[in-house]
């Protein structure tokens, strides 16, 4: 049985087992969309440079059930971000949230299943916001995830509260016995005047292949502050499509940094809908690609209301046969006067077989805005390389130092020091040198 | 220490060095002077191993090794140091991290154990005082936004840290005011001893007021056309390079 059939069977099974809920129409609609659109191919303009349908030629097990027991403490320790006993940890195993492995210390942080949420005080919030990302990403993969939305979780950050300790999200796949398809689904609601920091990573255990199709929707209320860090350093035999859809529905501040290191095919959709006046967002990306890793960052900033400010900078170095794709769109809608929107993508090409496809786009429908966009693709500066070598630094180490130096300003936007150092170490390991 | 024999070099298709002969012994200071375009900086670059230059003939022996066979980093390990005419700015790499990496790579090459943080800091403080450079400069990105004088002082600081056998100073005086020249020259003088040597490449005599050479060579059109003691530098300053050009023309 191929994977598409497995998915369909699993869907029918779930629908008949669980009976109807308020989420059923959302799932049904998405399932129909998936059946109509299928897996995107390179004929789809948004997928022109990323051939994701090949991933579905393999067979995957897709039978989410709680297998928390298969993940040991040492498995967890291997992938943990640095933290202390107060750190909040949300663990997903094969796409499903694990109550057993997760630990929540902050009282102002609530994590419940979306199904449960629809039967609670959060019902209206869920119905209002779940699935908003499909307005921006109308493809079969987004629909596929939404078809199983009831299995996802709802994260609520209470109004007026500061979540003092970061919320770490570990997306674990146990592929020790079969290829795994995982579909984590999260809806995060950050209440008025709340502050929270999220950091997430992805880890596959086992030699079999994994495909993660993740959708995270984040709703940010007035005066809230959200930091979101995504660190991707999974094995080369793993593939991921992640969608992070952020709505600033009140005047708020959002900072995101996406760091992509190892992996097979990695596609990140990041949408920021600036729906409230005077909102501000900063989003940064960093990638160091080697081997045959393919990383595709698709970002959309939608300026809906006036006086918003967004700043986007993605930087990366691409070596060996690796590929980096950047597609950044800034929309400035008719009413979004006085928008300030900046976008830049800078690349270092380190080998003759490496590829960069970069496409910055601006679509402006207002007439009083400041916007800029641009991209560069270059090589390491020969003069700088010689300078370092003339001081006794080997060619390989000199290259690593220069690549690291190229990226370091992005690292500076990872505000929690523990995470920043952790990422710096991952990068140094990736570059094959120790940098203090 | 250094023996250059009939050295020829070119960049792309242009031949620049057309038969350089020069011997430098430990403890000596040599100055290479000459008009613009004579090949002074090329000579400095070729000795340090700049990749754009192709050596087409001749030989260079440094401490009984064939220098031309070595990579730039190996030359640094052997004890060659080039103070750049235009030091490179590298945003994102602090001078401290850079110099620590360099010092330990050179120590590794020389078969010495790397310095730990404490040893390194001690060495750095000592050398900082010697070349009059302050910590705030070293904590910043390498040469980024440095003034001309700060960049050159940083070059001398690196030289102090790496303790080379042969220091080549490529127009270190260019673009510096007299106070900056004095500081740079003081640094070089403090680092001089009987076991190392200095090769100064300069267009003007004034640097030689502060770093007094044992020998002065005039480079013109890819060859050393005249050698002498420091008096030769005064003669050049007085008469200008035309007198050399005329002499060479007469000999031809």
Automatic annotation (TrEMBL), chain A:
SUF system FeS cluster assembly SufBD core domain ranges (all copies): 177-406
UniProt-listed GO biological process terms: iron-sulfur cluster assembly
Residue span(s) of domain SUF system FeS cluster assembly SufBD N-terminal: 12-168
Domain of life (superkingdom): Bacteria
Family membership noted in the UniProt record: Belongs to the iron-sulfur cluster assembly SufBD family.
Record-linked PANTHER family: PROTEIN ABCI7, CHLOROPLASTIC (PTHR43575)
Protein name as it appears in the record: Fe-S cluster assembly protein SufD
Source organism (scientific name): Ilyomonas limi
Gene symbol of the encoding locus: sufD
From TrEMBL, chain B:
Single GO MF descriptor: ATP binding
Signal sequence extent: none
Keyword field contains Kinase: no
InterPro entries xrefs: AAA+_ATPase (IPR003593), ABC_transporter-like_ATP-bd (IPR003439), FeS-cluster_ATPase_SufC (IPR010230), P-loop_NTPase (IPR027417)
Origin organism lineage: Bacteria, Pseudomonadati, Bacteroidota, Chitinophagia, Chitinophagales
Organism name: Ilyomonas limi
ABC transporter domain mapped to chain residues: 2-246
One Pfam family hit: ABC_tran
Keywords: ATP-binding, Nucleotide-binding
Record-stated family: Belongs to the ABC transporter superfamily. Ycf16 family.
SMART domains linked: AAA (SM00382)
Stated name of the protein: Fe-S cluster assembly ATPase SufC
